[in-house]
User: What shape does this take?
Amino acid sequence: MDRKAVVRAMRYIWPGEPHDVDDAELESLYRYPADPRWLAVNFVSSADGAVEIDGRSAGLSNPADRKVYELGSDLADVLLIGAGTATIEDWRGVHPDEETAERRERHGLSPVPPVAIVSTGRSLPPDAPAITEAVTPTIVITSGSAPPATRQAWADAGASVLVAGDETVDLPAAVDELVHRGLGRIDCEGGPRLFGALLAAGVVDELRLTISPLLVSGAAERIALGAGLDPTALRAESVLAEGDTLLVRYLLARKQG
Ligand SMILES: NC(=O)c1ccc[n+]([C@@H]2O[C@H](COP(=O)([O-])OP(=O)(O)OC[C@H]3O[C@@H](n4cnc5c(N)ncnc54)[C@H](OP(=O)(O)O)[C@@H]3O)[C@@H](O)[C@H]2O)c1
Assistant: This one.
C-alpha cells in the first residue's frame, strides 16, 4: 500500500476561519491528545457510503486521504485492524520510510508500531503476511474460544497472542491491555465489522472520515456493521477539504465502565 502522498493545498474549513493548512498544522490537528488512552478510527467512504470498490478500499482513496491516514499510523503506538482487513487488504506490517521514522522519533514514539489484529481464529491464517512479514511482532487479539492449535501456530509464526474474553473477544478488556502495555494511542484502520463491534463496546473516541467525491451505488458495505446502536451523536472537531474531498474528524463519547 502506498502510504506516502503528495497533496495539493489542503484547506481548513471549520470551525473558525477557513485557511490553507501546512504540514505542521495538519500534523498538529491529527496528533493524538495527551490522554493516555485514545482510540481513533480511520475510514474512507464514497459520498453514497460505500466502504470498498471491487472489494478493496484503494479505489476510494486519494492523496489527501493517504496523507491523513499516514498521520494516523505515524503518530500511533499501535495499529488495530480486523482479520478481514488484514487478509483482504494484504497487510504486511508497518515498514516506515525516512519521513515516518523522523516523525516518530520527533514525537518520542517507538521506531515501528506493532499491528494488532482481532480474530477468533476463523479468518487469520498463521502464515498471513501481516504476521510473518512484520518487523515488530504482530499482536493477535483473540478469545478463549480460539482453538489452542491456532493460537500456538500464531505464536510459532512470530505473533504475540493476547487472549481477551472467553466466547467472544472482549474489546474493552483488549483495549485496557493495550493501554497497560504502553500502547494507548490506538489507530484503528478498519474494517466495518470491527468498527461496529468497537462502537457497540463504547471504546471509540474519534472517527476520522474521508468522504471521497465518488458515487458507487451497488452492494458495497458501509463503514460500520453489526447489531446496531441507538443513534449516537457525533461532534465535528475539524473539517478540511482538498479539492472535492472532505476530511472530517468527529469526536464520540466513550462509554464509562
Ligand atoms: N474504506 C476503508 O477505509 C476500509 C478500511 C478497512 C477495510 N475496508 C474494507 O472492508 C472490507 C472488510 O470488511 P470486514 O468487516 O470483513 O473487515 P474487518 O472488520 O477488518 O474484519 C472482520 C473480522 O475481524 C474479526 N473481528 C471483528 N470484530 C470482532 C470481534 N468483536 N470479536 C472477534 N473478532 C472480530 C473477525 O475475524 P475472525 O473471522 O477471524 O473471527 C471478523 O471476521 C474489505 O472490503 C476492505 O477493503 C475498507
In short: Residues 43-44, 51-52, 55-57, 60, 81-85, 88-89, 118-124, 168-169, 171, 189-194, 197, 225 surround NAP (CB under 6 Å). DSSP finds eight helices and eleven strands in the chain. The domain at 36-251 is CATH 3.40.430.10 (Dihydrofolate Reductase, subunit A). Residues 83 and 232 are 26 Å apart (CA to CA).
